[in-house]
Design brief:
With 330 residues, the chain is mainly α. It has 13 helices and 5 strands. The strands form 2 sheets. It has a 3-stranded parallel β-sheet. It has a two-stranded parallel ribbon with strand order 4-5. Strand 4, helix 8 and strand 5 form a beta-alpha-beta unit. It starts with a strand and ends with a helix. Adenosine-5'-diphosphate (ADP) binds next to helix 1. Adenosine-5'-diphosphate binds next to helix 1. It holds the Pfam family tRNA-synt_1b. Homodimer. Keywords: Aminoacyl-tRNA synthetase, ATP-binding, Cytoplasm, Ligase, Nucleotide-binding, Protein biosynthesis.
């Protein structure tokens, strides 16, 4: 039997991935390449929903690819590509725009958040319809599952709605995808404000852990994470969001269940947990940074990986688009 298919993407805009990107999404991508027919892409079309400097965009796209390889993606086990290399994304994106209600798009909470921070004159129509392009991204590959963080759940629901709408109006064409979101790491919180998710756009510099930062800086951020005035190390996201966030992160990095960590830290102070987690982070990011640099230092290999990835992706995307165009009457 053929493997179920997964598709996911990450923006190249921030340069370094942050800990939320890694634990919420990329870590699952690496695991799923072993069991699924996996398609992963750097979404540069999504990046231009806000202004980009061309040289920086080009460099950050390669940097994102290097980080995905450093995280463990293997181009022999998955299809790794850059979104703009596959023109079918924009083509099906237009089709999906024409199926989406204006009110329906207006209900996307991530757009409301982002645009309210930017003001309406700086907000582009592209940012408004970016969830619809994402629908096309997913449907082109007939993905069964989409490994993402919790913040993407509403966009996966939109994907299912539009796939159903197209299928029922024009004939069975698209697979309805499910979100693949892990309970433990679906939402990693800001280290300084554990009431908000860690995010490249919303976090304070001290609350955002960038994987490519100097490990000393990262260790310091972890040691100065905001907790609470209690002293007990217990997993309780409602009353102890800061401590619970640190426990989730440590559990994932060490592979120890949260309950085991709670036992280990019985009678110990927050400082013990923070010191250990700072060390675990340093152990993780140090080789990650050098592997990333290694891929950047070998541009020919990177180019050839991306050329092969685009070719494999395009074969699938072109077939789906041709079917969709046929159903539409093109
Ligand atoms: P950001 O949300 O920082 O702008 P992206 O939009 O590029 O980053 O997100 C890439 C992936 O990382 C998505 O699957 C998203 O759901 C996931 N992600 C982002 N932030 C977090 C977080 N704080 N916790 C868990 N997953 C996250
Ligand atoms: Na996001």
């Amino acid at each position: 039997a053929s493997r179920p298919r997964v598709l996911s993407g990450i923006q190249p805009t921030a340069g370094s991935f942050h800990l939320g990107n890694y634990l919420g999404a990329v870590r699952q991508w690496v695991a799923l390449q072993e069991t699924h027919d996996a398609f992963y892409m750097v979404v540069d079309l999504h990046a231009i929903t806000v202004p980009q400097d061309p040289a920086a965009l080009r460099a950050n796209t390669r940097l994102a690819v290097a980080q995905l390889l450093a995280a463990g993606l293997d181009p022999d086990r998955c299809t790794l590509f850059v979104q703009s290399h596959v023109p079918e994304h924009a083509q099906l994106g237009w089709v999906m725009n024409c199926l989406t209600g204006f009110g329906e798009a207006s209900r996307m909470t991530q757009f409301k958040d982002k645009s309210s921070k930017q003001g309406s004159d700086r907000t582009t129509v592209g940012l408004f319809t970016y969830p619809v392009l994402q629908v096309a991204d997913i449907l082109l590959y007939q993905a069964n599952q989409v490994p993402v963080g919790e913040d993407q759940r509403q966009h996966i629901e939109l994907t299912r709605d539009l796939a159903e709408r197209f299928n029922s109006r024009l004939g069975e064409t698209f697979t309805l995808p499910e979100p693949y979101i892990l309970k433990e790491t679906g939402k990693i919180y800001d280290l300084q404000d554990p009431s908000v998710k860690m995010s490249k756009s919303a976090s304070t510099p001290k609350g955002l852990v960038n994987l490519l930062d100097d490990p000393k800086v990262t260790a310091k951020k972890v040691r100065s994470a905001v907790t609470d005035t209690d002293t007990v190390i217990r997993f309780d996201p409602v009353d102890k969001p800061g401590v619970s966030n640190l426990l989730s992160i440590s559990s994932t990095l060490t592979g120890k269940p949260v309950a085991e960590l709670e036992k280990e830290y019985e009678g110990k102070m927050y400082g013990a947990l923070k010191t250990d987690l700072a060390e675990q982070m340093v152990e993780f990011v140090t080789p990650f940074r050098s592997r990333t640099q290694g891929y950047l230092d070998d541009p020919e290999t990177l180019d050839s990986i991306l050329a092969k990835g685009a070719e494999k992706a395009r074969a699938v995307a072109a077939e789906t688009l041709a079917q969709a165009y046929d159903r539409i009457g093109f």
